[in-house]
Design brief:
GO biological process, one term: pentose-phosphate shunt
GO molecular function, one term: D-ribulose-phosphate 3-epimerase activity
Helix content: 25-40%
Bound molecules: D-xylitol-5-phosphate, zinc ion
Number of helices: 9
Catalytic activity: D-ribulose 5-phosphate = D-xylulose 5-phosphate
Structural class: alpha/beta
Order of helices and strands: HEHEHEHEHEEHEHEHH
EC number: 5.1.3.1
Mean pLDDT: 91
Distance between the termini: 37 Å
Strand content: 15-25%
Number of strands: 8
Strand order of the largest sheet: 1-8-7-6-5-4-3-2
Cofactor: a divalent metal cation; Co(2+); Fe(2+); Mn(2+)
């Protein structure tokens, strides 16, 4: 065997290994929701979860109209943007939706998701998000049917299944979300597109493996992550992120 052939085989293997590593790295994403962070030191809280191995910052926007709570807007998004390179995943629980989308795009959001009931024109809102350079997601409340996906599967980038009713952190996981995840996963497979499938609400180390088995790839966790560890410990989030990952490893991917 000539040296060239050997080198060719080695570089082919290296390439395969690289693909495997990249795929392995991107299979499951953990997205701590800053709703449960300490807002008095939000920048640090964002940096610390990412340093502990989280992948995405989940940013819950509530308007005291679509949901009975009021949280944060584009100003806070631009304030945390320089703190991390991690994608900012904006979950809009606001009605109407369209007016505020360009503001979040300018504030550095990477993904913007909205509830279809909150938009008069779902297709237009998806387009608006993408025209502003962000990935677009549709969010499904526990009682919202997946039929909203029927005519937009060729466009959307993310499906977010709510496993609690939106409005508050720290609620209990609603188990029927698992069946909904399975149905959404089937629709994604049939579409042949690369669409993220995210769960939001009541996710913790006891249920994350089961959720992954139902087809989920992106896991929002608010109180489970930000409620963990001692406030004085700069590495307080290392163990909870590691524990979530080790549960995910049990899901087999
Ligand atoms: C609920 C929010 C969630 C919430 C998750 O309306 O969309 O992102 O913060 O919090 P936990 O993980 O505590 O249920
Ligand atoms: Zn959320």
């Amino acid at each position: 065997m000539s040296l060239n052939v050997i080198m060719g085989k080695v570089s082919g293997r290296m390439r395969n290994l690289k693909v495997k590593l990249v795929k392995g790295f991107s299979m499951y994403k953990i997205a701590p929701s800053i709703l449960s962070a300490n807002f008095a030191k939000l920048g640090e809280e964002v940096a610390n979860v990412i340093a502990s191995g989280a992948d995405i910052i989940h940013f819950d926007v509530m308007d005291n109209h679509y949901v009975p709570n009021l949280t944060i807007g584009p100003l806070v998004c631009s304030a945390i943007r320089p703190v991390t390179q991690a994608p900012i995943d904006v979950h809009l629980m606001v009605k109407p939706v369209d007016r505020i989308i360009p503001d979040f795009a300018k504030a550095g959001a990477n993904i913007i998701s909205f509830h279809p009931e909150a938009s008069e024109h779902v297709d237009r809102t998806i387009g608006l998000i993408q025209e502003h350079g962000c990935k677009a997601g549709l969010v499904f409340n526990p009682s919202t049917p997946l039929s909203y996906l029927d005519h937009v599967m060729d466009k959307i980038d993310l499906i977010l299944i709510m496993s609690v009713n939106p409005g508050f952190g720290g609620q209990k996981f609603i188990p029927s979300a698992l069946d909904k995840l399975r149905s959404a996963r089937q629709k994604i497979n049939e579409s042949g597109r690369d669409i993220m499938l995210e769960i939001d609400g009541g996710v913790n180390t006891n249920n994350i493996a089961e959720i992954a088995k139902a087809g989920c790839d992106t896991f929002v966790a608010g109180s489970a992550v930000y409620g963990a560890g001692k406030d004085t410990d700069p590495h307080r989030y290392d163990s909870i992120i590691a524990a979530l990952r080790s549960e995910l490893a049990k899901a087999g991917k």
